[in-house]
Amino acid sequence: MLEFESTYRKPGNTLFRSILGTDPFDWWAGRFYVGLWGVVAVLAIGIGVSILFIAVGQYGDWDLWRANIHAPLREYGLGIAPFLQGGAWQAVVILATLSFVAWALREVDICRKLEMGYHVPFMFSFAISAWVVLQILRPLLLGCWCEGFDLSYSGHLTWVSNTGFRYQNFYLNPFHAYAVLGFFLTAMALAMHGSAILGTYNTDKNPVQEEANVDNFWRDYIGYSIGEYGIHWLGFWLAIFTLTMSDLCIITSGPLVQDWVGFWQWHIPFMPH
Hints:
There is one protein chain. The chain is mostly helical. It folds into two domains: 1-157, Photosystem II protein D1-like (Photosynthetic Reaction Center, subunit M, domain 1, Up-down Bundle); 167-262, Up-down Bundle (Photosynthetic Reaction Center, subunit M, domain 1). The chain is 62% helix and 1% strand. The protein has nine helices and two strands. The protein has helices at 15-20, 35-59, 87-114, 119-142, 153-166, 174-200, 207-221, 227-252, 260-263, and strands spanning 28-29, 32-33. The chain has a two-stranded antiparallel ribbon. α2 (35-59) packs antiparallel against α3 (87-114) and α4 (119-142) packs parallel to α8 (227-252). It is globular and about 65 Å long.
């Protein structure tokens, strides 16, 4: 155990303990905190991956580029499909969602032990929302599990391509444009931050001086610096914006808009004959 680990490697202050008064899963495996939600996540991952491999074996194609777990056929609607006709996909999606949520709750327990804010699990919940919107919410709104994407490299990419063509010009989806903008802005802001830290770091100086070096670098370079805390908050909110736009991009295509080319016809002025 490292010296600083003793400050938070102590039992208690978990969600399970706050509800029931006890938590038998409040333990570490080496340097990794496990907890109840860690156990749930590992079990869900293990069972889900096992089902995935069983299904791939039944399909008989172990090529990673072609191996595919198909979404249910349209004829099954929102019902339960046979194992090799979409049932495996349904089981893996449920277990994957459970593992993602459990991992976020494990992060909450870690935040409680460190007595810090819930920024990390809050951010991760937006990443989970992208999966839930794609594989659960949108298919529910369209009345068929077949609207989810297949679990494979090629199946996922084919789904993306087909969805774009299905709703005409997907680039006319404004939320798609904002999501792409947010993605590049987030990458740019955090890359600039990382490069500034590495470019101004000097082991001979104290941390306060290092922070001043970074601030001075941006003041000299672009005329303004939002500071060490500011850049992290900027990255945080840019990522939230990006994931929110991504969710809106998918949830509007189909349930609300069937033709993005036709959608924009409202702005064309009426031309009398």
